[in-house]
Amino acid sequence: MKPKSVTIKQKTLLFLFTLLFFFLCKKTDSVLDKESVSPAIQKRPNVLWIVIDSLRGDIIGRYGVTPNLELFQKTGINFQYHLVNAAWTRPSTLVFFTGKYASANPVNFWDYPTTKSEVEAFYRSEKHPLPKLLKDNSFVTYMVGNNPFLTDKFGLGVNVGFDSLYDFSSYNEDTRRITKKTFEVLDEISSQEKPFFLFLNYNDPHKPYTPPPGFTNRIQTKEILDEKKMNYLGEVAFVDEELGKVFEELKTKNLWDNTLVLITADHGEVMHSAHAISPFTGTNTYYGHGQDLFLENIHVPLLIKLPGSTLKQSISSMTRSIDLFPTVLDYCELPIPKSIQGKSLKPLIGNLETTKRTYYGETRFTQGYGEGSEFLLQRSYRFHELGKFWQGSVGSEFYLYSDSKKDPNQENPLRISNITSIKNMKLNPSLEKKIIRFWKQIRSMEPKLPLYHLSIQPESKDTEIQIRVPQGTIRMANVPDGLVLEEKGKLVQIHTKRTEAFEISFEVYPDVSFPEFTVLFSKKQIPKTEIFTGYFGVSMASCSSNCDLLYESGPQRPMIIPKAKVYFWKEGGQKKSYSSKQELGTDALEILKKQGYVQ
């Protein structure tokens, strides 16, 4: 009897084990079916990136018009000192989506038209702007908003790779339409398995300031406001109300918790009379932007809600708009490309930051560098091309130094006419040293200009060299001893009695025209047949037009032909092609008028 009872027990256990195994297998199968999209995709958070055009960094919480933003600020991460690296919409948006400074991509940041050559160059060089990169990593990507610079169909911008783009820049009353379309997009999103990236771009409070009736009544302040600022704040109140609806809709659709929400602006707005006329462009920029890099133009809000987190924090350290691209990738657990010039905010949020971030910015006729509260701004022709904003002459490039701790509104910056003359200003030695260091930082941050080289083997004790450019100016970079220079901007004349070989180097500033030169030995001009050029040492006489590639040597120094009396080469790449002759179409002009860009 005993062996039989053991067998029954074993069979019972075997049956129970088989039943349990079958149940577990079925459960695992159902989970796998559910996650067939990809477990990695489902784990990734959604991303909602909200831009409120022209929202200054000192508005939220001050005037009673931002209750929804204030609630978000108190329940998320507030970056108190966030600066954009460009001061008007198109370059600032491209900084968002490339993680690079404005000058690092081919699209100009001084004129409204984007030329065909610029657009094509952008598509060649920027293979992975943020929307496209996320799309390639199984995100579904949308843009809803008013930003005419995110499409190439008007001749105003470039396509950065959204799956779906709903642009309302051609509508007069766009704000409520944007909210309505956002609700439709959220309906579509909520039925999808993939994570989403939604870029939501409200144009209000960009000028012209036309808030709907009643919104200016919400302003609460003892400050005496003029009509423009009241209407500006009315538009802020209007957008804040619309954002409250969007937040509620995200929560209703259970999308809030697993979404990284980022709220910022593309630039600020000039409201201080000291900056009414830009010292850099001479343009009236009162209740406008894009003509300088003063703090009221570049200090904007940055509020972040992390996915699956209720972290509340206020961070006073400087952050920059180039940091947002890598931050999004970091929280989506995607690798950050090495070409990115920004730095993820994740270490700062996690209290792991070991070094302070510094600022570099660019806008029309202006470059700037900053550390903490101190800034050096330069009037600059560095990135300009011939056109409406610039006719080819290079004038004074002065510098303005300010410390916002001592001069909060940057009303009385220290003016420096020329870096070389700073020693005559009798400044405090530590301040002088700091300004020179800031100036060197500006030079190191900007892309390098091409460098031209002339190698000369004199035949007599009377050598003369003339270098000319039609536009811009010539800047000598390397001049050996024994040479006498006469520099006249577009013309440089060099005389020497040297009989041994020597080399000179120069750049064309800005890089808008190709230099012409003549070399004379004992008043006799060296013909082009005896001038060799480029990496391969081809005779200059072998090309008469469009010869840029002929002169290129790349990063390699050419092997100078021993018999060459004159050898010429270019180091640093081809000049950017830009033409100001392109006229804006009727649609583009109408959009810019509605945006307040064109009066």
From TrEMBL:
CDD domains xref list: sulfatase_like
InterPro entries per the UniProt record, alphabetical: Alkaline_phosphatase_core_sf, GAG_Ulvan_Degrading_Sulfatases, Sulfatase_N
Domain Sulfatase N-terminal: residue ranges: 45-331
Coiled coil spans: none
Pfam family, one: Sulfatase
Protein name: Type I phosphodiesterase/nucleotide pyrophosphatase
Organism: Leptospira wolbachii serovar Codice str. CDC
Lineage: Bacteria, Pseudomonadati, Spirochaetota, Spirochaetia, Leptospirales
